[in-house]
Amino acid sequence: MKWKGNRQSSNLEDRRGMSSKGKLAAGGGIVAVIVVLLQLFGGDTGQTLAPILEQVTQSQSASQPREQRELTAQEKEMGAFASTLLAYTEDTWSQIFQENNLGNYEEPGMVLFTDAVSTGCGNATAASGPFYCPADHKLYMDMVFFDELKTRFGAEGGDFAIAYVMAHEIGHHIQTLLGTSNKVRQLQQQSNKTEGNKLSVAQELQADFYAGVWAHYNQKYLEEGDIQEALSAANAVGDDAIQRKIQGNVTPDSFTHGTSEQRMFWFMKGFKTGDIKQGDTFSALLN
Question: Which region ranges are annotated with the description Disordered (predicted)?
Fold first, then answer.
């Protein structure tokens, strides 16, 4: 993706130089398995995740001192890339909100971190993968996740896989601003687990659709192979793909994010149409 020399966002906070000694259960153990099965690319991930992870991390984070270090040249470049992508989302969604009479777009923040992070939704570790916290309107990303996405889940490498993930999380910010996330939570409180999971799938697929809409508006920055990288990432994190890899079988009633096919379909629908009005995944899945 073309990005060098373009505007960077002022809403990025880089905490990667402040890491704790040790990994705080990141990347392995039962917490990572729970997160991978239920929360990978989560919507209001932080809000759901906090009660699970806080019990594991609070005592450890309190006892482990923080280290501060100089970022490597590669890390600095990755930070500049992430900041430019965030600026792209700001410009795009400001335009979309104006075009659709949705008022002024409220820009989210983004925090880059290593190992563990404190958020408005509670403490979390790198095991959570990238997530959006509706309480503080911020995205949280440990960039090491993208190595895991490639090595553990078989996604293609490339910078547009990162762009897809970030755009997906921005999609959850859009849902928060438009009131969709709140409506989903209310309906889930009135639903059984299976129905609640279906609502979660519809919400996640809509975030994929919004990621596609963002890509549609940013085609001037795309390079050959970028869309394939996004589709490879979407395919790798489908519920069915993850369940086959981790537990050896597929249980559709437990899906929370959608199948690989669904995630790719809705991303591409957003990319092809560029029209946020075409993203009613709830009617498509629940009726």
Answer: 1-23
Contacts of 17 by beta carbon, 8 Å cutoff, 6+ apart: 68, 69, 70, 71
**For residue range 96-128, what is the model confidence (pLDDT) as tens digits?**
999 999 999 999 999 999 888 999 999 988 887
Which residue, chain included where needed, has tokens 């890390």?
75
Q: How many domains does the chain have?
A: 1
The CA distance from 47 to 204, in Å, is 15
139 sits in which H/E element: strand 138-141
Start-end of H helices in the chain: 29-39, 45-63, 73-99, 145-151, 159-178, 180-189, 193-217, 226-236, 239-247, 260-273, 281-286
Q: Is residue 76 part of a domain?
A: yes
**266: closest CA among 188, 164, 136?**
164
Residue 191 lies in a domain: yes
Full domain range(s) for residue 209: 12-286
Q: Is residue 4 part of a domain?
A: no
117 and 57 in contact (C-beta within 8 Å)? no
Q: Over the stretch 36-90, which tens digit does the pLDDT of each residue have?
A: 433 445 554 444 444 434 444 444 444 444 567 888 998 899 999 999 999 999 9
- Give pairs for 95-103: CB < 8 Å, separation 24+: 95/217, 96/213, 96/217, 96/276, 100/276, 100/277, 102/178
Q: Report how far residue 63's alpha carbon sits from residue 37's, in angstroms, rounded to the nearest whole number.
A: 29
The CA distance from 176 to 65, in Å, is 34
